[in-house]
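Thread: "does anyone have the structure for this chain?"

Original post by V.I.:
We have the sequence but no experimental structure in hand. Need at least a predicted one for the grant figures.
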Amino acid sequence: MELGRLVEAAGGVCPEKFLRRNIKGLVYDSREAGPGLLFFCLVGAKHDGHEFAADAYLRGCRDFVCERQLELPPDASQTIAANSRQALAAMAAEFYGHPAKRLTLIGVTGTKGKTSVASYIQHILNYSAGLRGNPHIAALVGTNGIDIRGVVTPTPNTTPESLILHRSFAEMAERGVKYAVLEVSSQAYKTFRVHGIEFDFGVFTNLSHGDHIGPAEHATFEEYRDCKAQLFANSKFAVINADDEYAGYMARALPAGAEYVTCGIRSAADYAIYGIEKWKSPTALGVSFTLRYGKESVALSVPCPGEFSATNAALAYAVARELGVPAAEIAQALRAATVRGRFELVEVLPYATFIIDYAHNELSLERALSAIREYGPARLVCLFGSVGGRSQLRRPLLAKVAEKYADFCIVTADNPDDEPVENIMRDIVRGFSPGYHSYTCIPDRGQAIEFAVETARVGDVVLLAGKGHENYQLIGGERVPFSERAFLQLAGRRAYV
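Reply from O.Q.:
Generated one for you, C-alpha cells below.
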C-alpha cells in the first residue's frame, strides 16, 4: 500500500516526495524492523519508541511515524502525528482493509469478570454454531490470548495493540469467523488500541475503586471510569449489569438512539436472576439459577461458584439471546462452560480441592474466598502474592481479605518484576491484624505450592490466587516460564504415593 494512503487515513503530515513509497507492512518493535516496513515510534510507560528509530533504520526501515522530528538520514520519511498510537490504529485499519467491519464485534469491559463473560459468550456461540456445522464461528481476544478457530496465540496485554488487533480481525474474516469477542481494558482506550473501532455489542460487568490506579496505569478513578465508558460511547447496543452502581453511567455513555438491556439480581432488570443455589460435585463447584426475560424463563447452571458467576452467565446469556441463539442451546452450552485460570479446579489429591484463580486485588480475592467459604471446607487455605513495581496500596488490603475468610495464608511471589519479593511480602503482611499468626511467607512460589500440597488435610480447599491463566512469572523484566498446574500436579504425585 502506498504511504500516502496510510498518511491520509491517520491525518498525519509527511513530505510529498515520499508519499508514493510502497509499504509492505507495519511494525513498532525495532527488533522486527526491515526493508519496506513502516516503523511507529510508540511512547509507552517505560520506553519511548523514538529512541529506537535509529536501530530500525539500521535494520532497513526507511519510513517512520513519529510525534517529533528525528535525526535520521535524508532518505528516511518521517510522518509527524499528534499521537503515534492513534496513528497506528488508523493506519493498521486501513492497511488491512478495515476487517472489523466484516465481523460482529462484542466488547466486554469492567473491573472483574471480563474474561469469564467473554469466554462464556464465545463458548455459547461456538456451541450453537457447532450444532449447525461451524463450531468456530466466534473468536476470542483477551487475557487468555487470541483464539481463532481453536488456535490460541498468547498476547502481552488483555487488549493487544491495534496492529495486532486489525491483523487478527483480517485473519478471522478470511477464515470464516463471524463474531469477535473482545475483552476491552481501560488501558485499551487510554492507549488508543481500539481507536476507531465500532462495537456491535458493549457489555459491562462492574466497576470498583482501588484497582488500576497508579503511576503506570490511571491517574484517578475518574479517568479509569471514563476509559471504561468509552466502550459504550462506541457501541450500537449494550448489555449492562444493573446491580453495579455505575450501570447508569455506562448506559448514559451510549450514542443517541442506541439501546441496551440489563441483567440483575437485586435491581430491576430486563434479564432478572432468581433462586441462586449452590451445587457441588467431586470435580466442581457451581451455581444454578432461573433467568427471566419478559415471558421467557429458563433454568441455568454454570460450573463456577459464587453469586458473581450467576451474573457473568446471565450477561453472556443476554448477549447470545439478543443475537438470536435459542434459549435451550444457551442453557446447554453454559452447563459445560469453563474458563482457564478462573476458578479452575486441578486434580491434585483425592482428599483435598485445589483451585487456580486470577483473583489479584482485594475485591476479586474477597469474591473468590467468600464463594468458596459458602461450600463449607474443612479448612480454606489461600496462597497469594502481589505484583511488583505498582499497586502498592493493594498489598495490605489483600492480607485483610485473606485473614477475614481463610483459615491459613501462604504469602509468596506473584509477578515481582524488578522489585524484591521480600519487600512485596512485607507490604502484604502489614495488612494482617496484630497478633494474627495463621500465615507463613515463602518467597519462591513453586516452593509455596509444594508446601500447600504437602500440608493439605482432608476436606481442605486450597486457592492459588493471582496467577490464573498465566504460564510465566515476570521477574526482572523477563517472562520466566512458570506453570502452577505443573507444580501442583508434580507436588501431588510426590505427596500422595
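V.I.: this helps a lot. The longest strand covers residues 271-281.
O.Q.: and Residues 89 and 194 are 7 Å apart (CA to CA).
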